[in-house]
Amino acid sequence: MDVFTLAFVAAVLTSSAPVLFAALGSALCGRAGVFNIALEGQLLCGAFTAVAVSWWTGSAWAGVAAAVVTTTVFSGVLALGAVSWRADPIIVAVGMNLLALGLTGFLLRELLDATGTFAPTGLAGLPDLDVFDGIPVLGALLGGQTLLVPLALLLAVAASLWLNRTSTGLRLRGVGEHPEAAASLGVSVTRYQHVTVLLAGALCGLGGAQLSLGNVTAFTENMTAGRGWVAVAAVMLAANRPLLVLGACLLFGAAEAWGFRLQGVGLPQQLTDAAPYLVTLIVLVASRLRVRRRLRDVDPVAAVSAAHPEAVVHPEETR
Amino acid sequence: MTDLHPDDARPAAGADTPAAELRGITKRFGPVLAVDGVDLVLERGTVHAVVGENGAGKSTLMSVLYGLQRPDAGAVLRNGRELRLRSPLDAIDAGLGMVHQHFRLFGSLTVAENVVYRAEPGRWGVYDRRAAEQRVTELAGRFGLDVDPSARVDTLPLGVRQRVEILKALHRQAEVLILDEPTAVLTPGEVDSLFAVVRSMAAQGTTVALVTHKVREVLEATDRVTVLRDGVVSARLETARTTAGEIVEAMIGRGLKPAVNPRGAVSGEPVLEVSDLRLAAAPGAAGVHGVSLQVRPGEVVGIAGVSGNGQREVVESVLGLRSPDGGSVLLHGQDLAGLGVRERRGRGIAYVPEDRPGMGTAASLSVADNLALGHHRTPPLGSRARLSPRAVRAQAGELVRRLGVKTAGVNAPLASLSGGNAQKVVLARELHHEAPLLVVEQPTQGVDVGAGEEIHRLLLDYRARGGAVLLVSYEISELRALADRVLVMLDGVVTADLDAADATEEVLGAAMVHATRPDDGSSRAGS
Prior knowledge:
The structure holds two protein chains of two kinds. Chain A has 14 helices and two strands. By secondary structure, chain A is mainly α. Chain A has one domain: Orthogonal Bundle (ABC transporter involved in vitamin B12 uptake, BtuC). The longest helix of chain A is centred in the middle third of the chain and has 27 residues, at 189-215. The radius of gyration of chain A is 21 Å and the shape is globular. Chain B has four domains: 1-95 and 177-254, P-loop containing nucleotide triphosphate hydrolases (Rossmann fold), CATH 3.40.50.300; 102-174, no CATH class; 262-348 and 435-527, Rossmann fold (3-Layer(aba) Sandwich), CATH 3.40.50.300; 363-428, no CATH class. Chain B has a six-stranded mixed beta sheet with strand order 6-7-8-3-9-10, with helices on both faces. In chain B, strands 16-17-18-13-19-20 form a six-stranded mixed beta sheet, with helices on both faces. Chain B has a four-stranded antiparallel beta sheet with strand order 2-1-4-5, with helices on one face. Residues 1-14 and 516-527 of chain B have low confidence and may be disordered. Classes of the chains: A mainly alpha, B alpha/beta. Chains A and B meet through helix 7, helix 8 and helix 14 of A and helix 2, helix 5, helix 9, helix 11 and helix 14 of B.
């Protein structure tokens, strides 16, 4: 199998990009202390809006812009619910995911008059990049991609730099780690969390647009098909660190691209479609096992008490 | 009670404006009057102790000074001008700083990042790590705070984390620093270096308010003392001209009658016999290299030493929480090897662990449930499969009455109790079944003077009834009051085995840090 060709790597990048946008948003939220697993719903929201607006206006970029705006507004549900009103972010996210699935299906019928799939001829997709044409490796990797693919890669690096090299990034990390401490020094925890959740919404909008106007040019009911959950898995695996998120997303993208190749060899599609999820499962279990083994090396009592005597709380003055 | 006017505590000559002052502070929480018309004057460049038992109002008072609580009446003054404190941010702006008992640090960030957080050096939003670390090094050097600015905070011992908290305040130009029970979490060595830092800050003009309930610290580290009892000032004293007795009397409203071991000949077959106990050092666990000890009925054997020299490992080996690599543990002559914690407890070992909130109690459960824990399978409380809530409550009611535990009721969650009362609950549970051996670590840690005295008395009563006690403590005074014999542990070996009469502070202190390991002759630097 031609796994190590540039064409394969290019396919990996295409597959990874939507997941990467969503995962980066979720990772930033994780650093700010908001558990954001509403990725599936936000991606779907972005994908639908992008196609609908592109169809109405005839401009794919208008679709992208509309996807960003709409998904940001949609993410306000999480910002208000989980941050302002302190609801359980998991419950809010589950609600958002179900809402997006139902609502996009409903609007697909009501607004675009289609059931199942909407892929009319004349629907404007995002254009392929041509600035890299003729450049040896970059041309092959990015030539057939939309602008959003290299943007996703750059954003991973930018997110990492922001978190680790800027004052606001430092404050964001503090907010997520110990909100009371951050507040005691005058950082507005809710403001940081609101902005981060909305930013993640914008990123999911880009991810959704890439999915429906870049990877394909169509909207299908539930077209995210679990990519939002793969992004959640990537975020957990990477412990909210953007560059590791990038690595994890590329791994899942590779599994998906590899799945397409396997279909070519005659494996049933149902099996190859499962490849990314299988890889997700294996990697998550493996990483858990590693943590467990590391803990077992130390004596269990020591691991709990002696290793962290400082973790002991003395509540005599708390009332 | 000596209730002086605040002005009387000022020096006669050169009375310039105090750095900070509280006037007539009154604060109510519902029906409870936490502080009632309290005046406090913090003179510039002095260390001022604010002492009192838990609930005396010292924390409330400091919360008012730092803007955490708004007083119902009274004023906060800084350099003679009245402050309007809406939040601690206003207090920080006014040059106040506070180190809370529970640190507010970001564990995954570095020392420098914690110190400069929200006051970062740098341009265009880019965080200048080098400038931040330089700033920390410079501040640390000026006040003798030894820290590595690039270390991750969660890798640091508590004493160093506290320095980070102090640096945070200093970085924000705090001129008045409030330290809330700063020594509660420190080892004796860390306490000494903290006090050196406090002295150095005062010498450079910083005013320090030291909140504590430990009289020794007041005498050691402060210039002036304000004693609170039941929300009012019960005494204003000058440290140089007062005594421990006077402070304690002002704190608890009566003289202290410390419980002291009457001592006398101890005889009988050993209840506990540990021979040649060996444990390899592991991450997070000190090694134990051939420790032997015996505890006989009616005897209190104390283990002294700086925390982390193998005391915990010995205790856990006796309890069955840890299996030693070599040596034996005998209870009444029977080898306990291979027995789990429950079997050992069933054979007569009671245990009061150092980690009261984590290991000793279940904070969210009721007082009654906590008193039943570990005995819940034995009638009348319950059997293998059944628990009798009525019997649990009845037993709890009796124990609470007998020991004078202050609680809203046996159904109140344990977390609602003060440290001293929570510890009494643990002791009541462990002593109730008259196990022949009691292993107890740090029995009065985080406990008021008054309650500590009662706890000591309970331990000595148990001894008088023929109980054998293995006592681990980092407080030399506690060991001297309670123990018949004191062993000193250093680096996993017993470096001294003394009769209580010979165990003076000097001898114990020296054995705790200076002795060399007999097997290889190398000595370990203090941590």
